[in-house]
Amino acid sequence: MIELINTPDLAKPLEVEIGTYKPELLPRLFKLYNDWNVGQMNFTSRPMSQEQIEKHLIQEGMKFFTFKPLNMGDPRVMGYVAVEAVGKAIYIVDFLLSCRVWHKYKGMEELMLKTVIDYARSVGAKGVRAWYVPISYTDIMSKNEPALTFLKRSGFKEELEDHIFDWDTKNEYPQPEGVVVKNA
Questions:
Q1: Domain contains 183
Q2: Pairing of strands 179-181, 14-19
Q3: Is 68 part of any domain?
Q4: CA 138 to CA 121: how far, in whole Å?
Q5: Which of 29, 77, 109, 173 could form a disulfide with 114 if both were Cys (CB 3.0 to 4.6 A apart)?
Q6: pLDDT tier at 156 (50, 70, 90 boundaries)?
Q7: Closest Cα partner for 142 from 36, 16, 49?
Q8: Which of 104, 134, 122 minimizes the C-alpha distance to 172?
Q9: Domain assignment of residue 93, given as a range
Q10: Residue 75, pLDDT score
């Protein structure tokens, strides 16, 4: 029997629901943290057990965002960002995006950064900081190289090529084209 898969209409904007962590999302987050495909977008490359994720989710000072495309034929959360307030800055602790989204659609990763920057601006943070931690699986390329490529083109300022990227919250992050936020 052939199963028909609902394929997205790439001419239409991607509709995204932005949410926060709910306990029923734990198995999906576990998969996003640990399911390494070539091209998975993950800034820090840190695999975590379900127990580690649960502890991470209850840390004080953390804020979590989930991103679920509504019109791509797959009803799961495809993106996740965890941030932490440190002094006058917001640090991106985790940034995970399934390759199923960013390989097909433009703008999801930019929407994720925009959401973090908008949040930082709303709480009076002076900046947003992200860092990239490579993890190699061959001598040729890092497993999460797409994340570095994205950060370098994101508009964030790279500090001394140490894979630390900063955004001054005096500046708004542009709304990505082709992405519409649809919250319930």
A1: no
A2: parallel
A3: yes
A4: 39
A5: 173
A6: very high
A7: 36
A8: 122
A9: 14-170
A10: 78
Number of domains in the chain: 1
Q: Of 97, 123, 108, nearest to 175 (Cα)?
A: 108
Evaluate if residue 145 carries a pLDDT over 90: no
List Cβ neighbours of 172 (8 Å cut-off, separation of 6 or more): 117, 118, 121
Q: Does the reported pTM lie above 0.90?
A: no
Q: What is the dihedral of CA 25, 31, 34, 38, to 10 degrees?
A: -130
Q: Which two tokens stand for residue 166?
A: 């900063």
Residue 92 lies in a domain: yes
Q: Is residue 36 part of a domain?
A: yes
Q: pLDDT value at position 36? A: 63
How would residue 142 be classed by pLDDT, with cut points 50, 70 and 90? low
- CATH code of 66's domain: 3.40.630.30
